[in-house]
Amino acid sequence: MQNTLDHVENIENLFDRLFPIMRSILGEGYRSSLDILKEYVPFSYNYYPSGKKVLNWEVPKEWVINKAYIENSKGQRVIDIKDSTLHVVNYSLPVNDYFSLAELKDHIYTIPSIKEAIPYTISYYKPRCGFCMSQDQLDSLPEDTYHAVIDSSFVDGNLVVGECVLKGHSKKEILISSYLCHPSMANNELSGPIVLAMLYNRIKSWKDRKYTYRFVITPETIGSISYLSDHGEELKKNLHAGFVLTCLGGKNPLRIKLSRRGNAPFDNLVKEIDKGELVSSIKNLPEKMRIEPFDASSGSDERQYCSPGFNLPVSQVARLVYGEYREYHNSLDTKDVMGIENLITSCDQLEALLKLEEEQLYYVNRYPYGEVKLGNYDLYPSLNTNGDRESDSAASLKQQMNSIDHFVAKVMNYLNLADGSVSLEEMKKKLHCGQEEIKIITNILLTKGLIEEDL
After folding, report:
1. Are 349 and 286 within 8 A, CB to CB?
2. Ranges in the chain, pLDDT < 50
3. Model-wide pTM > 0.90
4. Alpha-carbon torsion 20, 24, 28, 34, what sign?
5. Which segments of the chain belong to CATH 3.40.630.10?
């Protein structure tokens, strides 16, 4: 039986278990963190061994870190990863040597502009040896001889991706993805996977699901690239919408980074909500959002899902956005900054957006190659002159649509737009139709067998 995340205490307990773990892109810390999340989401695991070619990348070796510390000449620990997992450069080479203060500084990383913070520093793909501490601490070190120890090694291992699918009525899927590879940071690291687990628990409890939901946890970048290397074509075929969850703490409005397409179904939905043009009775819909275009130069795994060869309809959802808050990628990114209650709000709003997407209707033209010969379906005038055009069903259509010309134009444009990416709500606006008019056209086209719901 899966654990639930329906109370603040349960969410906080999950956070407290995950926060102190030394994580990286491969290794025991990542695996144990994923195993903890598996108590809430029944993941199956995909394995990618070290050395495996994945698209244009290669899975690296696993980093094994046993201890890392610096001692002064009296044997007193200056820093120790037992106190903070951020004290060592992630993927650092081993070292066991003595250094003067000047020599030691060549291996120390700080944030001079935020003197009290320990930076998060990585060197996955270039061998380095290094430690991290606050600038205040570095400034306070006296001249001395320091013993620096990093007990690490690199072994063949496996990159692991967690995957769980909740089946719906439709083969069309919604992807919910996050990453789990940074040590001891709250908003930047744990808000995404915790909200993903919360959403799984919410969606699992829905009595009726239209879409199939795919939940994916990866190490950032290399993990999504690995996953796409053997799931990319499947996602291209079935994916209706997707979200990369990151930085969902804080009290800021939701920030939606649109997919590369910019006009995918969810892109259009949030734009309509933001304009105040979509009315719904669904609770917890965000009243205000910050919507931004796709940018391949920054962000998270949406860059991989939206790379041009895949071009998946995947957005990124955040609140307290990476690079825009002082605590980003350093030891100040704590539970208090993130806020457990803020994760609940993020989950509430995301669930509401998903429920709204479930309500949207999408239709596809059953004959999308060339124009449909509407005359065969009694939907086009049998006589075309410079005067009035007539149809065998002219009387009823004129009653419904004011004129045959008006009706034919709407039908032709409807069929041209009906590719499964334009919701009925959006179709109504594009065709300048009222609610009753779009319903009449839709029902006629369904009855004639020219369209079908996209499921």
Report:
1. yes
2. 385-395, 397-398
3. yes
4. positive
5. 8-60+158-359
Say which CATH class 63-155 falls into: alpha beta
Distance separating alpha carbons of residues 202 and 283, to the nearest angstrom: 14
Are the C-beta atoms of residues 320 and 173 closer than 8 Å to each other? no
Question: Is the Cβ–Cβ distance between 228 and 305 less than 8 Å?
Answer: yes
For residue 202, give the nearest of 354, 33, 339 by alpha carbon: 354
For 43, phi and psi rounded to 5 degrees? -65, 145
pLDDT at 389: 46
Query: Taking the CB of residue 119, how many other CB atoms lie within 10 A of it?
Result: 17
Residue 438 in contact with residue 363, Cβ under 8 Å? no
Rounded to 5°, the CA angle 329-334-335 comes to 140
Q: Which residues contact 179 (CB under 8 A, 6 or more apart)?
A: 192, 193, 217, 218, 219, 220, 223, 224, 246, 300, 301
> Measured between alpha carbons, how far is residue 11 from residues 118, 184, 342, 366 in Å?
26, 16, 11, 47
Check the CA dihedral 288-292-294-298 and report its sign: negative
The pair of structure tokens assigned to 355 is: 């429920």
Residue 391: what pLDDT?
A: 46
Q: Where in the chain is the domain with CATH 3.50.30.90?
A: 63-155
Nearest-angstrom CA–CA distance, 180 and 43: 14
Q: In this predicted model, what pLDDT tens digit does every residue of 362-397 receive, in sequence order?
A: 999 999 999 999 999 989 876 554 444 444 444 454
Range 8-60+158-359 has CATH code 1.20.1740.10: no
Alpha carbons 173 and 312: distance in angstroms, whole number: 12
